[in-house]
Specification:
With 181 residues, the protein is an alpha+beta fold. It contains 3 helices and 7 strands; from the N terminus they run ββαβββββαα. It is elongated, with a radius of gyration of 24 Å. The chain starts with 10 loop residues before the first strand and ends with a helix. The mean pLDDT is 83.
């Protein structure tokens, strides 16, 4: 996967953060929205607004907020444009430094707690770039199979329920011919 497009002014500095935290409000510009739409494979990202609040947390920062977006994608049924309004909450922890190298054996068992908290993200230096967080949140909120209201595959004459659609329908013809002979 390619890296997320860098969004202008999406960084939060840790070294100069006030004790009550820092607010970050972004109204992403058209050039950045075009790059994001290209990476996500959607027709357009018409609006992308992010409101974040960052506070110090265990040597790093905790970022909470809201993402508001308007996207346009082609319908999976008719390929007509479908507009989607997105409103997603954001809650993520960022810690300084990269992930530690794992030096265990290749066949070692790893326990993954699916009910536990998410693993924190990491950043290098004194600034955490929120670009990847914004793009990831938007991509997870997108409808993977967008369609206009009222659209269905059946309206195009292929509802998928006819006997000729069954995998062995062609063999039935051979069997019927054999029975007659």
């Amino acid at each position: 996967m390619t890296s997320a497009p860098k969004i202008a002014d999406a960084g939060i500095r840790l070294d100069s953060m006030p004790t009550n935290g820092r607010d970050l409000t972004l109204d992403v510009n058209a050039e950045d929205r075009l790059a994001i739409a290209d990476q996500l494979g959607v027709t357009a990202v018409e609006k992308l607004q992010v409101r974040l609040h960052a506070v110090r947390f265990r040597g790093g920062i905790r970022v909470t907020g809201q993402l508001l977006a308007t996207t346009v994608q082609p319908s999976v049924v008719s390929l007509e444009p479908v507009t989607q309004e997105i409103s997603e909450p954001i809650d993520r922890i960022f810690l300084p430094g990269g992930e530690k190298e794992y030096a265990g054996p290749a066949d070692a068992e790893i326990f993954v707690d699916l009910e536990g908290d998410d693993v924190p993200d990491h950043f290098e230096g004194n600034e955490a770039d929120m670009s990847a967080l914004i793009v990831e949140t938007l991509s997870l909120a997108l409808d993977p199979y967008p369609r206009r209201s009222g659209e269905s595959v059946g309206q195009f004459g292929d509802d998928g329920d006819t006997e000729s659609d069954l995998p062995f329908a062609g063999l039935k013809v051979l069997k019927d011919a054999e029975d007659k002979g």
